[in-house]
Write a structure and sequence with these properties.
Layout (H helix, E strand, L loop, with lengths): L10 H24 L16 H13 L7
Length: about 70
């Protein structure tokens, strides 16, 4: 409805917002990692990461665990 931004959110709205934000961050981080061979200044890239490794790196980076398998 007509709520103002300072009224806050209930737990369901907060959880939904958090999950949407995390999915957007994972997708953006995945895109940067997976397509980094096409980005400028890629000279130091030894070999590009495959799909599973890129997904693993992006999820672990966004969630704060940053488990490095590459």
């Amino acid at each position: 409805g007509n709520r103002y931004f300072w009224e806050g959110q209930n737990w369901y709205e907060y959880f939904y917002s958090l999950m949407v934000f995390n999915v957007i961050c994972i997708a953006a981080t995945f895109a940067v990692i997976y397509f980094q061979e096409y980005l400028p200044l890629r000279n130091s890239l030894q070999e590009p990461l495959n799909f599973p490794a890129s997904l693993n790196a992006s999820v672990s980076f966004v969630t704060g665990t940053f488990w490095q398998s590459h």
